[in-house]
Amino acid sequence: MNNCIKKKRWQFVLCVWVGLIGCKETKQETKIEPIKVKTTKMVYPTKEQYEVGYSGLIESGKKINLSFQVGGTIEKVLVDLGSYVNKGQLIAQVDKTSYLKQYQVQQAQVELAKENYRRIQEVYEKGSIAEIKLIEARSAYQQANSAAQATFENIKHTKIYAPISGYVGEKMLEAGDLASPGVSVVSLLKVVEVKASMTLPDNEINNYKLGDIARVNIKALGNKEFVGKVDEISIQSMSSTPTYLAKISIENPTLTIKPGMNCTVYLPSKNGDMKRGFIVPIESIIPDEKGSYFVYVAEEAIAKKVSVELGQLYDKGIEVISGLSLGDKLITSGYHKLTSNTPILIVE
Fold it and tell me: Are 75 and 94 in contact (CB under 8 A)?
């Protein structure tokens, strides 16, 4: 009997021991490891965070296409592509031989008409000829003189001089080509000041005005940034799309900015209110099944789900206008593994 009782006691102790071990193992199995996350502290946005970026293209500050006012064979073009020219410098000229010969003939006609007018005037003063003859002679002299002066002007127009100082951006014709009036020979670029040209959508065009300050980032120059101001805004949309052309003037004394470079223009949004909300990474915003949005914030070692109301979208992120408070630690990495009250470990 004693052996039987002892045996049952050992069986009871063994069951209790096994149960304790099982409970311990169960607790170990259900232990939740904290999720590693990164956070950013909510502070009021800077002016740069409220900027909107637009793709643009650098243009010369001024472009002038130079052409002859008369036709003829080009004798010489005295500039090369990319060369710098000073205001008043000779650019090109056409053969003026035919215009010189025409002027010489007309000058002879002027002298003849002048002499004829002088003689008729002498006869008229003696009362031997009608006044109409004097008027006709004077008119013939004036017409001959005007024709000669017009041809003399054509001789001057056989040369092109630079109206401004700048760089030769393009050569359309060379020596030996036939020039026609109004057909461009070279284009002259003024690049000590350049312009960033961009388009603005119709719902944003009224947000900006002449003189607004802009930042211009040029990737080809190692993402170097330049400060400019709005110099032009079109009043009419472009032909095929509801967009408007705007240009930002930028000083370029070192000539490092070249026409044709791609750029990004950052303009301050007129919708931004620096005390209204916070700018957060757009990827940290999570939509729910009801069409609302929420984020996770870190409270000590726990992730808390917080509903938020969104505002304007900017280049630096999206605006949260309610739901977050100054100093909140927004979870920006690891949030896709979280649910509300999930243990977290904040890492740098």
Answer: yes
Question: Rounded distance, CA 205 to CA 154, Å?
Answer: 47
Higher pLDDT, 121 or 27: 121
| Tokens representing residue 46 in the block | 């800077």
List pLDDT tens digits, range 276-320.
Answer: 678 899 999 999 888 899 999 999 889 999 999 998 787 778 889
Cα separations (Å) of 321 from 16, 41, 326? 58, 16, 12
| Domain ranges (residues) in the chain | 35-45+274-346, 53-61+189-268, 96-157
* Residue bearing tokens 């999720």: 35
Bridge partners, 317 (sequence order): 314
Half-sphere exposure of 155 (CA within 13 A, CB side): 14
Measured in degrees and rounded to the nearest 5, phi and psi for residue 37 equal -135, 165
CA distance between the termini of the chain = 69
Q: What is the pLDDT of residues 78-130, one digit of tens each?
A: 999 989 999 999 999 999 999 999 999 999 999 999 999 999 998 888 888 88
In 3D space, the residue among 226, 232, 225, 222 whose CA is nearest the CA of residue 197 turns out to be 232
Residue 165 and residue 277: Cα distance in Å, rounded? 50
- Closest Cα to residue 118, out of 143, 146, 137, 139? 137
Express the helix, strand and coil content of the chain in percent, nearest 5 each. 30, 40, 30
**CATH class, range 35-45+274-346:** mainly beta
Kindly give, in sequence order, each residue whose CB lies less than 8 Å from that of residue 232, ignoring residues fewer than 6 positions away: 195, 210, 245, 246, 247
DSSP class of residue 337 equals G
Query: Quick one: 310 exposed, middle or buried, by C-beta within 10 A (0-12, 13-18, 19+)?
Result: middle
What architecture does CATH give domain 96-157? Answer: Orthogonal Bundle (1.10)
Can you give the pTM of this predicted structure?
0.59
Superfamily (CATH H level) for 53-61+189-268: Efflux pump adaptor protein, beta barrel domain (2.40.30.170)
